Amino acid sequence: MIARESYFDQIAPFVGKNIIKVLIGVRRCGKSTLLQMLYQRFLEQGVPAADMLHIRLESSEFSHLDTADRLTEYVYAHIDKSRPVKLLFDEIQEVQGWENALRSFMVDLDADIYITGSNAHVLSSDLATYITGRYVTIDVYPLSFAEFLPAYQASHPESSERAAFVAYATQGGFPFQSELAFQTGPTLKYLDDLLSTILLKDVVKRNGIRDVDLLERLVRFSAAEEGHLLSVKRIADFLKSERRKTTTDTIANHLNAAEKAYLLYRAPREDAIGKQLLAFNEKWYVVDQGLRQAMGMSNQANIDQVLEGIVFMELKRRGYSVTVGKVDDLEVDFVARRGTDVEYYQVTYLMADEHTREREFASLLAIPDNYPKYVLSMDDFCMTQSGVDAINIVDWLLGR
């Protein structure tokens, strides 16, 4: 298993506390493995197996636990209610009325509860109503490059960091590819099938979408236009050119459904000086660049977009909220905020000529505050100027 210590660090302050730990993220990003590893750590720390239940609700072994009543009955039959217990539920959204079951466990038991979910329904449902203020979310993503690199080099001992990054930009970071020895063909086949599963189980089924073809076209178009400003009208015009008429409400609802399944991420646009969100145009990013390649797009041919997507998801992984900045007529790729910290980013492939350097630095230099500003590229030479740091993307991803 690939070690993912940053997530255990996030969970650690809440272990043993009467608060539900909710691990959320796209299907197959590693939530189930984290839950399994957490269970093993508890065993190693001396927690008796009899005081824990680890229930994988997508497994045929537990498929009969499809309602809150059945889940509650099963749990109470398999634990000692007089003792502290740890309850770990994988893919909790498979249980109808699961919120009621969790509320019962919190009231009736001395329970340390952990759940995972592959759809924002886990949070947008009645959880907030039933258990207000008694849950904490941990966002789980596919592997970062820092996590991907040692696993890839274990399968390819002679591989350089640069070669590993090329694989990462092409195949993305879904953990299962380590089981495939990171072979490109099998990995992309796996990702193609995974995409179909996400669309059907976490988007179509959860949201009652009937026009699956329209949904697929919207997801593919958003991935193809990754990093470009998009409006609902522009998307509607594209669909019209493909002889697909629909409403702006339908487009917005389908994109929201893909966002709730953690397949697509939205970056709103803001005035980087006035700090006001703008009501038109935004950018969309796919959760993992390997899915983009699996859709039949060439990540190598669209390397600028892919690099921007990698940086966006890394900022999310590091706990930042991310918007797209506007400075007069100039664009700032990312305005990243975490607490009181603010950072600005421009992302490009290479800055080989003076015109490119001027373009990438200009918008950052136009921002009149003193928060950190960065230009990330694949250049090996330091081109820092006027207080704006230029950093190699691989070095930045590895925290150097």
Describe this structure in words.
- With 400 residues, the chain is α/β, with parallel strands linked by helices.
- The chain has two domains: 5-139, P-loop containing nucleotide triphosphate hydrolases (Rossmann fold), CATH 3.40.50; 145-397, no CATH class.
- 43% of the residues lie in helices and 20% in strands.
- It contains 16 helices and twelve strands.
- The strands form two sheets. It has a seven-stranded mixed beta sheet with strand order 7-6-8-9-10-11-12. Strands 2-3-4-1-5 form a five-stranded parallel beta sheet, sandwiched between helices.
- A hairpin with a 2-residue loop joins strand 9 and strand 10 (341-347).
- The longest helix has 24 residues, at 184-207.
- The two termini are 25 Å apart.
- The mean pLDDT is 92.
Question: What keyword list fits this structure?
Answer:
single chain; 400 residues; alpha/beta; Rossmann fold; globular
Question: Topology, pairings included?
Answer:
Elements: H1 5-11, E1 20-24, H2 31-44, E2 52-56, H3 68-78, E3 85-90, H4 98-108, E4 111-117, H5 121-124, H6 127-130, E5 135-139, H7 145-155, H8 161-171, H9 184-207, H10 212-224, H11 232-241, H12 248-260, E6 264-271, E7 277-286, H13 289-294, H14 303-317, E8 321-327, E9 330-338, E10 341-347, H15 354-365, E11 373-377, E12 389-392, H16 393-397
Parallel strand pairs: 1-4, 1-5, 2-3, 3-4, 6-8, 10-11, 11-12
Antiparallel strand pairs: 6-7, 8-9, 9-10
